[in-house]
Amino acid sequence: MFAAVDLGSNSFRLHIGSFDGSAIRVMKSARDPIRLGAGLDAQGNLTPEAIERALACLSRFKELLDSYKDIEVRCVATNTIRIAKNAAAFLPRAEAALGRPIEVISGEEEGRLIYMGVSNTLAIPAERRLVIDIGGGSTEIILGRGHEIAKVESFGMGTVKHSSAFFPDGVITAAGFDAAVVSVRSLLEDATPAFQPEYWRNAYGSSGTVRAISDALLKNGFGDAEVSLPKLLALRDYCINKGRIDALNLAGIKPERVAMVIGGLSILIGLFQELNITVLHPIEAGLRMGVMWDLHLRSTKRDRRDQAVHDFLDVFRADVIRAKSVAEIAKSIFEQLKPSNEQLTRYVYWSALMHEVGMTVSHTGYHKHGSYLVENGDIAGFTTREQKLMSRLVLSQKGNLRKLGESLSDSDIAKAVLSLRLAVTFMHSRIELDFADFRLRMKNKIELEIKQSWVNLHPTVAYWLQKEIECWREIGVEFVVKAYA
């Protein structure tokens, strides 16, 4: 079973589902209109009231999740927590309330997960499609074919901002709508050439906003559920004639959601006009379904992060042969050290693959450049925490160990660092490692036993090992090397 928790700018949502052999079926869902985006003060901080609403909701979600056994859970936070200045103080409290880690994902990663949910729900292998998701704090536009994503863009415009900025105090005017639409088009204009109809066959709207507008069109006499520009303009005119958000009585739309629908309507009109969309098909799939599909694929060893790392190597023109050599050696050494957290093995492997990406910036200090690129790069599927971990490992591959600070107090991290450093050393010495000649232990001290004949065959490795002994000695760790017959 899988669960996706979505900390959105408008609502916090929870989906629990299972894979039935062909699709993921949602068995339980929950929603709480936290209105986190509206809970930002003038300084960009989450207000105490918004925080308390959020924590109470997450506590309720925890009770629900704890009632299930053998469930894999992933919690993602989107735009409002991305931009909130006090997010760092809020997140530990939120994680304690939920009882699970929370990932603050980028807009691009949000778009990729949205597309994953849509593409797996549609299951039309070769369809060229455009997917639009209008959230409370941001809008994602994704272009793809079948399951493959061609382009993702995230824009900082959402229903919360548009509703408050262009319809203040709930007043709806033609001038307000015009300004809202122009704002959307101005944000989009540089990106729109890549998303024109020549690149896709069908367009889909995945968000609750699009589905709510579709319901409003269908249930209030504007036509069927398919979304088109003439229908949107007719709904706009209806809203302008009413003059106020609180005067709107839209069948199918809960009163507390009307303001968000008005903000979303203005964004959608701008999208239709700028992207030349004729028809947008609402679809009951998006971020949460994408999160559950991602969990399912990881459980079946089809982890999209593998491809993301290889794509990252391509971007920075890394030497793939050298990268794979170091990665295989580092993985083997790490496994020999018997870490308590076997999950860390994959991060050691990925970090080793990316250890030379900094070469594209400079050969001097490439480990520092690589560390920055790995932490700040757009690597699909990885969380901020995961990228920071791999960034630290890339940084650790050479030079002194003092720069790692308290990280090495974790024995598994220390083993990961040792594995990567030795793998890089052996690769640079052009050594093909035979693990029959190599025994390594790391507890209170590091003990390396190697065959004397192996040392004789590789004279430069003795120099590098001596340097390594000195680096570990500087931080108070004894490193003993023994040669045996």
3D architecture notes:
It holds the Pfam family Ppx-GppA. This is Ppx/GppA family phosphatase. GO terms for molecular function: pyrophosphatase activity. Keywords: Hydrolase. It comes from Undibacterium nitidum. With 485 residues, this protein is an alpha/beta fold. The protein has three domains: 2-104, Nucleotidyltransferase, domain 5 (2-Layer Sandwich), CATH 3.30.420; 108-289, Nucleotidyltransferase, domain 5 (2-Layer Sandwich); 313-484, Hypothetical protein af1432, CATH 1.10.3210. It is built from 18 helices and 14 strands. The chain has helices spanning 48-66, 79-83, 87-98, 107-122, 159-166, 174-188, 208-219, 229-242, 258-275, 287-299, 304-315, 320-336, 344-353, 366-376, 384-396, 411-428, 452-457, 459-474, and strands at 2-7, 12-19, 24-32, 72-77, 102-104, 128-134, 139-145, 148-155, 202-205, 227-228, 279-282, 438-442, 446-451, 479-484. The protein has a six-stranded mixed sheet, with helices on both faces. Strand 2 and strand 3 (24-32) form a beta hairpin. Helix 14 runs antiparallel to helix 15 and helix 16 (411-428) packs antiparallel against helix 18 (459-474). It starts with a strand and ends with a strand. The mean pLDDT is 91.
Question: Key terms for this structure?
Answer:
single chain, 485 residues, alpha/beta, Nucleotidyltransferase, domain 5, Hypothetical protein af1432, 3 domains, six-stranded mixed beta sheet, five-stranded mixed beta sheet, elongated
